[in-house]
Amino acid sequence: MGLEVLRVPSGFDWPINMIWPGRMIGVCNDMDKYINQDNKYDSCELCKKWGRLSGLMKADEDGCPNLPYTDPPKGEAYQLWCTTTEGHPMSPAFDTPEELAQWLFDNEVSSFGSSTESYETWLKFIKGPGWAPSMVAGPAGIHSGVAEISAQQNKESS
Known about the structure:
By secondary structure, the protein is of the alpha+beta class. It has 2 domains: 21-70, no CATH class; 78-157, no CATH class. 33% of the residues lie in helices and 16% in strands. The protein contains 5 helices and 6 strands; from the N terminus they run βααββααβββα. The strands form 2 sheets. A 4-stranded antiparallel beta sheet has the order 3-2-1-4. α1 (27-35) packs across α2 and α4 (119-127) packs across α5 (145-157). The two termini are 29 Å apart.
């Protein structure tokens, strides 16, 4: 559980902070309960959008998508996802690691709780393993997994 950089199609536009239904056990039954809590989206339309983006429905199809559930489509763009829940994007999709790192830094995206990271730390994480646990606890205290990954990369390159 933590943060993960997924490679998605350029322009991938699933709403930020909205759970990707492909990772849920029951899409139609759970859509309002977990995804549409603020009624910002029409659940039926959101479900259909998921079906089209995941490749389970054609653009002109109507009705509920067919199973099986699926991860977001793969592509060349970079997008930060939270894996602490079923999974949701925390950023738009960007064509380069540098663009994603800049957006994460500029928007003070959480790496753990109220912590955020520098541009350089985000970039090392994105270019490095691209996955980190939410937090790491040790003799130095509790800090984000993203910060720990960056610190380990610094030690290895020294």
